[in-house]
C-alpha cells in the first residue's frame, strides 16, 4: 500500500538511507559540504588581518546576497542535522555495522578515532551554538549590530572567550583530522599503498585549518589585531 503512495525514486533514496552504506554515504557527503563551509569561513575570517574595512565589507557583501546566503544557511543546517542524526544512528547500530563500512581499518586507529569523534563532535556542536548566539544573533558578549570586525576583536580581547575558542578549535582540528580520513575511506579512494599518504594529508589539512582559526584569537590576545575605534 505505502509503496504505491511513495514515488519510486524517493522510495529508493529512503531505502538506501536505511542501509549502513547509505548512512555512511550521507555522513561523507554532508562532511564534504561542512568541510567546504569551514574552508570558506576560514578564508573569510582571515581577512581580519587585512583590517576592519575589508572584514566588514565581506560581511556586508554576504548580506547583499540574501537568497544565496539563506540557501547556504539552509543547506548547512540540513547537512549538520543529517551529519548528527546519521552519527547517532550508526553508533546505535554498533561495531558490527561499522566493520563492513571501512576498508582495512586497523583496530588501534579505529578505537582512537571513535573515542575522539564521540566527544570532540558534541563539544564542537556546543561551540557552534555559542558561536551563533555570539556573532550571528548577537545575544552574548561585547557585540553590536553592524560591527563584525569589532565584535570579533572585542570578544577575543576577553581571554576566557579566547581560551574557549582555542579549545574548541583544537577539538575541531582533531575531529577534522579523522573526519577527512573517514570521508576518503567512505568514498573508497583509499588503498593499502595510498592510505599512509592520505592519512598524513588529512592530518596536515586539519593542522593547517586549526592553525588558521587559532591565529585569530591569539593575534587579538597578543595585541596584533586591535579594534577600529569606530563605534
Ligand atoms: C576564530 C574563529 C572564528 C571566527 C573569528 C568566526 C567569526 C564569525 C563571524 C564574525 C560570524 C558572523 C558572520 C556574519 O553574520 O556576518 C560567524 C558566523 C558563523 N560561524 Fe564562525 N568564526 C570562527 C570559527 C568558526 C568555526 C570553527 C565554525 C564551524 C565549525 C564556525 C561556524 C560559523 C557558522 C555556522 C556561522 C553562521 C553563518 C551564517 O550566519 O550564515 N565559525 N563566524
Would you mind describing this structure in some detail?
This protein has 231 residues and is an all-alpha fold. The chain has 9 helices and no strands. The protein is globular and about 55 Å long. It has one domain (2-221). Helix 3 (20-45) packs across helix 5 (66-99), helix 3 (20-45) packs across helix 8 (159-186) and helix 8 packs antiparallel against helix 9 (195-221). The longest helix is centred in the middle third of the chain and has 34 residues, at 66-99. The structure holds protoporphyrin IX containing FE.
Which short descriptors sum up this protein?
globular, mainly alpha, single chain, 231 residues, binds protoporphyrin IX containing FE
Radius of gyration: 20 Å
Instruction: Note the gap between the termini.
Output: 64 Å
Instruction: Tell me the structural class.
Output: mainly alpha
Largest sheet: none
Tell me the fraction of residues in β-strands, as a range: under 5%
What shape does the CA trace take?
Answer: globular
> What small-molecule ligands were found?
protoporphyrin IX containing FE
Q: How are helices and strands ordered from N to C?
A: HHHHHHHHH
Taking pLDDT < 50 over at least 5 consecutive residues as the criterion, the unreliable ranges are: none
* Extended strand count: 0
Helix content: over 70%
Number of helices: 9
How many structural units, i.e. domains? 1
How confident overall, as mean pLDDT? 84
Amino acid at each position: 500500500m505505502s509503496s504505491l503512495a511513495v514515488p519510486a525514486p524517493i522510495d529508493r533514496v529512503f531505502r538506501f538511507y536505511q542501509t549502513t552504506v547509505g548512512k555512511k554515504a550521507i555522513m561523507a557527503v554532508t562532511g564534504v559540504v561542512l568541510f567546504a563551509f569551514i574552508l570558506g569561513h576560514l578564508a573569510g575570517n582571515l581577512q581580519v588581518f587585512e583590517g576592519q574595512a575589508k572584514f566588514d565589507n565581506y560581511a556586508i557583501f554576504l548580506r547583499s546576497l540574501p537568497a544565496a546566503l539563506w540557501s547556504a544557511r539552509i543547506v548547512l543546517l540540513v547537512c549538520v542535522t543529517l551529519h548528527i542524526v546519521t552519527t547517532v544512528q550508526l553508533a546505535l547500530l554498533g561495531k558490527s555495522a561499522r566493520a563492513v563500512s571501512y576498508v582495512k581499518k586497523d583496530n588501534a586507529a579505529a578505537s582512537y578515532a571513535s573515542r575522539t569523534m564521540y566527544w570532540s563532535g558534541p563539544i564542537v556542536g556546543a561551540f557552534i551554538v555559542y558561536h551563533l548566539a555570539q556573532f550571528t544573533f548577537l545575544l552574548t558578549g561585547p557585540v553590536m549590530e553592524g560591527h563584525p570586525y569589532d565584535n570579533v576583536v572585542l570578544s577575543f580581547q576577553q581571554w576566557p572567550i579566547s581560551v574557549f575558542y582555542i579549545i574548541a578549535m583544537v577539538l575541531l582540528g582533531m575531529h577534522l583530522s579523522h573526519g577527512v580520513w573517514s570521508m576518503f575511506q567512505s568514498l573508497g579512494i583509499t588503498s593499502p599503498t595510498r592510505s599512509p599518504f592520505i592519512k598524513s594529508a588529512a592530518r596536515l589539512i586539519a593542522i593547517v585549518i586549526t592553525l588558521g582559526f587559532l591565529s585569530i584569537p591569539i593575534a587579538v590576545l597578543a595585541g596584533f589585531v586591535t579594534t577600529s575605534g569606530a563605534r
